[in-house]
Design goal:
CATH architecture of the largest domain: 3-Layer(aba) Sandwich
Number of domains: 2
Order of helices and strands: HHHHHHHHEHEEHEHHHEHEHEHEEEE
Oligomer: single chain
Radius of gyration: 27 Å
Strand order of the largest sheet: 5-4-6-7-3-8-9-10-11
């Protein structure tokens, strides 16, 4: 239908359909249900008003309630909560999975549509005012002001906070003595980082193979749980059983071969078991894709299982887009993990391999393997280096370097590796 542009003739509302994107609303719901890890990243711009379709609005309200209640979100669980079989089948018929960029783009489009829709209904209200013979002069004069106010409300961002609000929040934490940093378990490292890792941090722990970064990670995780925090460990290299054996070995200074053979010092074994069995540490056997890792983190966060996350390790992860080269894949993964840490308000500790160039010298930031974005996205970069003796042989000492610390100074300290190839435990020296 050709729109009437001759304003000497009366306009018909039928010429101006209500702004509404039915397919896009369904697409966005599908992406949020199948990739719930993207919800926290976009929580500040998601709202009920994005959806005009009544069924879509109801599904979103259920989805948001499930997220707020930290319930598991997937197509099955949502279908069990919503009595909209036909509509849910339409959602489920969508193809593919949403990426962060796709979801953000769809939300942005629906925001524009929502603003147009509000203007549409405001315009109808103004037409009603204009056509009513009983309308008072004040109502006519207020109509443009109300329209402007509608635009201003739509443009307000929920991400914007006054400095006063932020300062008051900090003051409340300080007055309550609330810890804002999660301990690393190493006093010197805590000193450099003002008490440990804080919400939104992406921490990179890098080393060459066999230096002990996995064990170092688990010691930090154990220190966090002792301090009362929930620690989630995702190992893309080891099974949960292997992780448990390593943790028991380090905690109780037990030989891994003895644990495997069932011949251990049971007194030390029981002590280690009691130290670890506080219900604060969690293992997750996530698959090696970035989508799987982010989904696992988000779902565990919704269940209250992670105040801090440890991932072992970056180079074993992959993106869903196999056509991208390794550099671009690593770049995408580190940026996504940084966004996730910020949106969930938790620190994420990401283990990383160093290039071969770092094997015979002090490791540097440029030695981070496969992508320069690791250095850019990380708030803290810790590097481990095995100390060698005069004969070039490895010793039990490890140098730790704080090569990047966005919130403070960098530095180095020595830690000792106690034990042998069958059990490892790091102590400061």
């Amino acid at each position: 239908m050709k729109r009437n542009t001759d304003f000497r003739e009366p306009l018909q509302l039928a010429e101006f359909p209500i702004p509404y994107e039915e397919n896009l609303e369904r697409k966005l719901l599908f992406e949020l249900i199948t990739s719930p890890e993207l919800i926290p990243e976009n929580l500040n711009i998601l709202c009920e008003g994005l959806f005009y379709d009544r069924d879509a609005k109801e599904v979103y309200k259920v989805l948001r309630a499930m997220y707020d209640a930290r319930e598991t979100i997937d197509m099955v669980s949502v279908c069990a909560r919503v009595d909209k079989t036909y509509f849910l089948n339409q959602i489920a018929s969508q193809i593919g999975y949403g990426t962060d960029m796709q979801v953000r783009s769809h939300i942005t489009t629906l925001q524009v549509v929502m603003q147009r829709r509000r203007l549409y209904f405001e315009a109808i209200r103004n037409l009603q005012i204009a056509s009513n013979e009983a309308t008072q002069l004040s109502e006519v004069m207020d109509a443009p002001t109300a329209l402007t106010r509608t635009l201003e409300q739509d443009m307000n961002s929920e991400t914007t906070r006054s400095v006063g609000e932020v300062i008051n929040e900090i003051a409340e934490k300080v007055s309550k003595g609330t810890e804002t940093h999660i301990t690393t378990g190493f006093n010197t490292l805590n000193w450099f980082t003002y008490g440990g890792f804080t919400a939104g941090n992406l921490v990179v722990l890098a080393a060459r193979p066999s230096v002990g970064k996995s064990m170092f990670m688990m010691q930090m995780a154990r220190a966090a749980t002792i301090a009362g925090y929930n620690a989630l460990i995702l190992s893309l290299e080891m099974t949960n059983i292997e992780l448990g054996e390593r943790l028991l070995s380090s905690t109780g200074l037990l030989d891994k071969r003895d644990i495997a053979a069932g011949k251990v010092d049971w007194e030390n074994f029981d002590k280690a078991k009691q130290m670890l069995n506080n219900g604060k540490m969690w293992f997750d056997d996530a698959q090696a894709t970035a989508d799987d890792v982010c989904t696992a983190i988000t779902l565990n966060a919704l269940k209250g299982r992670c105040d801090i996350v440890y991932i072992d390790y970056l180079q074993l992860m992959s993106t869903s887009d196999s056509d991208k080269n390794l550099y671009r894949q690593v770049t995408e993964m580190t940026k996504r993990l940084k966004k996730l840490a910020k949106s969930l308000k938790i620190p994420i500790v990401l283990l990383c391999q160093l290039n071969r160039d770092a094997a015979n010298r002090t490791p540097q930031l440029q030695d981070l393997r496969d992508s320069g974005s690791i250095e850019q996205d990380a708030d803290i970069v810790i590097m481990l280096e095995r100390v060698r003796n005069e004969f070039g042989e490895n010793t039990n000492e490890v140098n730790m370097y704080l090569q990047k610390n966005r919130a403070g100074a960098g530095g180095g300290l020595k830690i000792a590796c106690r034990g042998n190839e069958n059990y490892t435990h790091f102590v400061e020296i």
